[in-house]
Amino acid sequence: MTGSIAISKIREDKDKFIGLASKMWEHPETAYNEVNACKWTAELLKEYGFEVETGYANLPTCVMGRWGSGRPVIGLLGELDALPGLSQKVGLEKEAVCEGAPGQGCGHNLLNVACLSAAVGIKTEMEEKKLPGTVIFFGCPAEEVLTGKVFMAREGAFDGLDCAIAWHGGNSNGVSTGNSNGLNSAIFHFKGVTAHAGGDPFNGRSALDAAEIMSVGANYLREHVTSDIRIHYVYKEAGTAPNIVPDKASVWYYVRGANRKNIEDTYARLIKVAEGAAHMTETELEIEFLGGCYNSLHNMTLVKVAHECMTEIGAPKYTEEELEFARVLNEKSPRYEKLKAAGELDNGPLCDTVPPLVIETGNGGGSTDVSDVAHICPTVEINTACWNLAAPGHSWQITSCSGMSIGFKGMLFGGETCAATALRIFEDPEILSKARAEFDEAMKGQPYKCPIPKDIPIPQPKV
Ligand SMILES: [Zn+2]
């Protein structure tokens, strides 16, 4: 079977891969601060004979490992960052390792290593079979703030790829076909004039008033946008005490939508709302554009190949202890009753099969910066079960499973599936030409335009 040499290599060296995933779990680092994850990933890539560059694409914590020469060029998209506040022990109770600290609540320790193990497996099989082509592993920072790969794209990191393979841990095994939104993210800072709120409020110009009026305007805007648009916001700064007219207020907005055009149209109107609010309150407005990303674009040619590979390899089985661990976690999940009623827990607490391929038509509502790569070259995202079926997204349950055997089994299965998929593509040029034709058709002659303008600086580590 194509990929069998790669799969053997991943299984043979599994302790090394689990070792790196464990280290990243024990030392979670948030977006753009992935200094250790970047360093450790570079070390392991070098050990396997990859040509390695850190600080790749001008992002200080980005790492790239390349092996081989010529085409096709296949990229694997690892991710390095953890989530703030999701520190959690491996266990059945919600209990932080360190209260308020970051944690692997999205399993990116597994994500990074699954793709790295795939790159190692691919290299081993290509060497043995003397296959032409290049495999590139990308350790991408800052997925959780949805801009890491977008900055990388802006800097040309993915130019020249024939296709890209991504992987993410999940509740079950499959290949992504569901839609996700693109987004723009910006903080609106208002600056006013402070005064004694009781003594001389007439001398004050409240920045908080501006932020609130902006929110009123934004909420009226909702009625007059296309139905795919979602607008959400939080206040970052809203004054200090009621008796002080706030001279500073900030509100952070996301505008999400099903395509870049709808997002940009709405975002432009949101700016007008903010300007109007500033005008009404005689305050000053400064817009801090944090970034944006594309909506999803799944390459169905690659989806089918990946699903075939996953089915052929077969899902890992779990021990009684692992099943019991997942069963208890499920019962503690806020999603438990709903999933149980829907019969989704009838086959056990963990997904241990590869269900038939389902083409999803709905939109999950979220966003991922993998979508930017998907608009640069044909891209597929594989998912394997790494946590209990009822684990909510970005939760302590995911941190718990990502530091133990349930997560590691899913990670290795993910790595094997990514490797087998890539090797099929290397061996059968027909797949890439079909994938490329599908991609060109979907892009309709409109090339990728990075949502982050050139003048926005790349965030630097704060550690
Ligand atoms: Zn994630």
Describe the structure.
With 463 residues, the chain is an alpha/beta fold. Helix content is 40%, strand content 17%. The chain has helices at 4-12, 14-26, 35-47, 108-129, 148-154, 207-221, 260-281, 300-313, 320-331, 336-341, 370-374, 396-402, 405-427, 429-443; strands spanning 51-54, 63-69, 73-79, 133-140, 163-170, 174-175, 182-191, 230-237, 248-257, 284-293, 379-385. The chain has a 7-stranded mixed sheet, sandwiched between helices. A 4-stranded antiparallel sheet has the order 8-9-7-10, covered by helices on one side. The longest helix is centred in the C-terminal third of the chain and has 23 residues, at 405-427. It is globular, with a radius of gyration of 23 Å. It starts with a helix and ends in a 20-residue tail after the last helix. It binds zinc ion. Residues 106, 108, 143, 168 line the site of zinc ion.
Measured by DSSP, the beta-strand proportion falls in: 15-25%
Average pLDDT score: 97
**Fraction of helical residues:** 25-40%
* Element pattern in H and E: HHHEEEHEHEEEHEEHEHHHHEHHH
Q: Terminal Cα separation, in Å?
A: 46 Å
Bound molecules: zinc ion
Molecular shape: globular
The parts where pLDDT drops under 50 for at least 5 residues are none
